[in-house]
User: Fold this.
Amino acid sequence: MSLIAATAGALIAVESGASDKAAVDVDMSQYVVRADRVLPQPESWRYVLVPAGVLERGKKVVVASGYEVLSNLSEKNTRVFVEELQRRQLAGTILWPTIIEALPREPMIVVLDRTRQAFMPADVDVAQSWESDAISTPEHTSEGFVSFEVADAGPEMDSRLTAIGRSSSYGTMGTRYGGDVPMKSGTFDGAFDSPKLMRPLSAGVVVLRARDGVVATLINADSPAGMSRLGEEMIAAGLSKEAAVFGMRSMSNPPPLWFREGMGWLVYTSEVSRKKIAFAGVAVDFTGQLVPSLLTVFQKTEKLSFNEVMLAGAFTHYCLYGNNRKLAPNFIQFMERLEREPVSEQLFKECFRRTTKKMEVELASQGRGMAAFASMELKGRLPELPAFSIREATQSEVARLKADAFITQGLWDQALDVLRIAYWRGEREPEMLAVLATLEERVGSVERARKLSKALMALPKPPARILIVEAKLRYRKALEGKAEGEKLTVAQIQPVLTLLAQAVKAGQNTETLWAFFSEVVLRGEGKPHASTGGYLVKAAERYPRNSIIREAARKAEGAL
Assistant:
């Protein structure tokens, strides 16, 4: 079984009726709060589960990850936001499936906050707030973004969907519904406007972070001073854009910065409604503006300016959809060569038969004509979107989702603190306890982690994350009394590897997990079993920059 098969074969299903889950009895001493600590009041949030979107495309199934949403907007505004998010989820499975498939399979956490209070720093030292249980965060070695398996987009939905272009790494660049696609038409004024006059969201409105397989987005949904209220549709578009950019960045061989940002802008400006999905119907008018240097944009590896993002989007749009798509083959050739060669003026000229300066003139010119509105549209009867419910979030859900959001920001102290407060107040929902056990084991509270793990492993279906905690606890036990570098027997490491394999099948398919898997294999005697070797070779292909995984894969290759 391949890594991607293991991931796609067993997705975690988060039940919408989480409030009805039975509590778990844990036999461990209660946490004791310091006398001078005033705990925050319980918080009131709305909760929505947006299920994963699944679309069959020929013989291939495209899965768009779902969302767990915490919202303190009104029920009406929350519903508008979630419906827009669902429509964009559907659009992604149809029009940018390769990007969708680069995202994690577990639900993305979304905190829709109009108060800007959800993640304000605590006004106390949370690390010292618990008697005899001070939080002592160890060094963490897996900071930042992680990579995920990328699959080619595969066959199109049916014979009416045709590929615009294909690249060896990036899959389908776009699809078109039917033989005749109505072009968008209309007028606009002002620089950098789309037909809907969409503007980029201000920095800090949509903040996406990822760590250890968890992806969380904090949305500051209030209105900045002097500005009109942000619409839920625009916020959902911003989230869709950030997720797309993150998906491309997470690929094992990510496309260059300009492509990620340019495609992100096209995703952001896509129009979605009950009866129509239009991708890349965006125009960029450089009238009265200084056009950035295209070659400079290609060469940048750090943040692009707004004008540079617009130029990247205009270039990508023009090559894939402008001028009757005559440049699509040249664009694909350019992208393929960039996988092997550094970008240069000569490379660009060989692919496009023109200089970058000539291309800049063409981009400025096309932004003033109707050809700039060429796009892909799907009209008519679109698939029905799954129904969802909005309800009051349980305190376990609030604690778990906020803790995971803290984890993605590297705020381990705050994450553990919010979970301990929930436990102290009597919350015992299994998924929350699994995150609590994960963090207690991480800070060295082994006995607490062991008691939590014992209770959760006794459930008919233990939470996926507790499988990793149990594996780490057994590995700790196996190492007791061992000298540094002393090998473990097959009988000692096999139960640990079995638990980790179960976690992978349950959706916990992260670089951190595979690094730990590799550490266990390297500590074991002899060569691993052939099936284990196959897993590790695949993991090394997926995470080529991880030295521990590469070393374990080399050890495993002899077993194949």
Observations:
- The longest strand covers residues 214-220.
- Residues 1-20, 139-197, 368-374 have pLDDT under 50 and may be disordered.
- The longest helix spans residues 75-95.
- The CA atoms of residues 109 and 216 lie 4 Å apart.
